[in-house]
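Same chain as my last thread, 59 residues:
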Amino acid sequence: MAKIVAVVSTQRDKIAGGAPIFLASDSAERQKLAFELEKILDAMAHELDEETMILVNHH
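reply #2:
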């Protein structure tokens, strides 16, 4: 079963929920942070839109 383990976004007002939320100042920082967390959390990063990526554990 897949589980969202983190959210990385540039838009604080559009994000809520139970997973940890990481805020980035721009798209480049969002992508860099998501890919670093992908390695640390052993998860996969998925882009939802230009502002938000989720990290999902598929184990």
